[in-house]
């Protein structure tokens, strides 16, 4: 059949172009430093694209960035992929040896570096094999370059040298756009690649799901948006792309400082954010939280399970929260705690029950639970199995890792490594990561359900459940507990609290940890760079405590 007409490519440029058509005078604010318009932003994006050319960067090469959540990061999120390069958002929370590994594995030719991370890069500069130029960034107006790195440029000076006249090249929607690395808890981190089309489809799905359905995030055009997921983590969930398309005011927090974030949320009347549960926990339990009116704020949560304690505390402050389940390889959207029509008139306590579930699929997404032979399990709320998903945006490859890519896509479904079940209303509930699952006496115990129950005990600030060895049952659960400042509680108190949950049929009685081994009180629960609880660390801490 003869091909007639222009085949428009689904690239990130579509979001940038529409935002400039719809709201060229909208404001983007950075901390208390300054603000500028979409038009100013667009000019700087073009200057950055010209800067890449001046640095000798060729389309298809990788360019890395170590930065806080700033306007500069968003400029790079447009300019680098639209120039035709692979944008490597370097995870600044990784260990130095892992960061060096990722930069070399990505084959970055240029590194953009916030001055805060300059000593880090200088510490292993001789190990970097492919980097030909370094661009340093700072909030200081009079920033002077002082570094042992070779071939160094200053970001603002580099941009000033460039023309604002730049014609973005026509590129394929299937060209690589972004690269981010998994945490690498077992072996080296894996590079997760997304094409323009994958990012486009993810953005459209998230936009439709969060904007069109009632009693959810209700994220609309012209609202105020503050990203609180690190912009190095899966493109800040692609939300900045469609926030710009919808003409939203941006409030960039830079480096996270809870007292300042609370003030900005109130002063700028922020409508929407997305973040990991630890960030929200830090904010709503902050001693100053009740001084501010946060009733305008809606928050999508990921990274770790949103439990009832956190959702209820947020609601007490007027904040509506919604659970989002995903992983780096899924860009990250898979499912979310979406209310269905029959839930809209429920009292808030019952709505929270649904809002904290792993949820139903986003628009255009699919999820199911299968047994070890890949047979579908019934949606009965009891049959626990392996969670697999399909979406138009899941990563198509681990960078330079074909065997691991094939393993990820076994049976043509993306294998998440999580276990869970689907209830008779179609809601997915994640019960564990495979590596964290507890099998006691041949039966599965849901650590996430136990954690949710323990967290509802008022003295508890945070809880994580791990498996500990048992001579008869192989494993038993242990509740690792951090108490709120000034609160006290004993193992017996927590057990009595859980017994009430068992009497109400919310948990199985045999799930309740044993006295005294099953209760481990500590000052704080350890988390990784995106807020996930480090259960490997907890197991080591427990073993040391038992010696």
How does this structure look, described?
Among the domains are: 34-193, ANL, N-terminal domain (Rossmann fold); 437-546, ANL, C-terminal domain (GMP Synthetase, Chain A, domain 3). Strands 7-6-5-3-4-8-9-19 form an eight-stranded mixed β-sheet, with helices on both faces. The protein has a five-stranded mixed β-sheet with strand order 12-13-14-15-16. The protein has 547 residues and is α/β, with parallel strands linked by helices.
Structural class: alpha/beta
Q: How far apart lie the N and C ends?
A: 74 Å
CATH architecture of the domain at 34-193: 3-Layer(aba) Sandwich
Overall geometry = globular
Radius of gyration: 24 Å
Uncertain runs are none
Sheet with the most strands?
8 strands, mixed
- Helical residues, percent: 25-40%
Order the strands across the largest sheet as they lie in space.
7-6-5-3-4-8-9-19
CATH superfamily of the domain at 34-193: ANL, N-terminal domain
The total strand number stands at: 26
- How many separate helices? 16
Give the strand content: 15-25%
Characteristic key phrases:
547 residues, alpha/beta, GMP Synthetase, Chain A, domain 3, 8-stranded mixed sheet
What's a quick, concise take on this entry?
This protein is an alpha/beta fold and 547 residues long. It contains 16 helices and 26 strands.
List the helices and strands and how they pair.
Layout: H1 13-22, E1 27-30, E2 34-37, H2 38-54, E3 62-66, H3 71-83, E4 86-89, H4 96-106, E5 108-114, H5 118-123, E6 133-137, E7 152-154, H6 155-160, E8 176-181, E9 191-195, H7 196-212, E10 224-225, H8 239-245, E11 249-252, H9 258-267, E12 272-276, H10 277-284, E13 298-302, H11 308-316, E14 320-326, E15 333-336, H12 348-355, E16 360-361, E17 366-370, E18 385-390, E19 397-398, H13 402-408, E20 414-422, E21 428-433, E22 438-440, E23 443-445, H14 447-455, E24 460-470, E25 474-483, H15 491-503, E26 519-521, H16 535-546
